[in-house]
User: What shape does this take?
Amino acid sequence: MTDEEFEGEDKEEAALARFGLPARLSDRPEIIRTLEEEMRLDNDLCNESLMRLLCVQLFSLGMVEDSLRIWQAKSHNFDAFCGIDVQILCGAGLEQTKGFLSGSSDEEATKAFEYLREAEAAGDFNGFDVRGALEEHRSYYI
Assistant: This one.
């Protein structure tokens, strides 16, 4: 999405209207592009609320390979790290996400895997259910 597409609109509202929740698989490339554009901005210019929504939209697609991209968004800055819940990495499910991240040689995947393990040990995934989590996000945004 370009800034022109957001003229006169709240960026979150525009992204929600454009991509929906759950998002459509056909919009995945555009969601990714928009998220990457936001992450390229300086920390004081990026919109962490928009980044969180875009991550939730990727979560809703349930594609395990998006977990690393969501981790990169979460790790972008302090506000994003606090605002993007660790569970959002797990749209494909906790075990599938851990398997994907632990099987990757990417350094960021290793960091994400370790963070997931720590969060799981701390009880952050007690009662976690992808479908239930998506419904919670829908009730928040819609």
In short: DSSP finds eight helices and no strands in the chain. Residues 107-121 form the longest helix (15 residues).
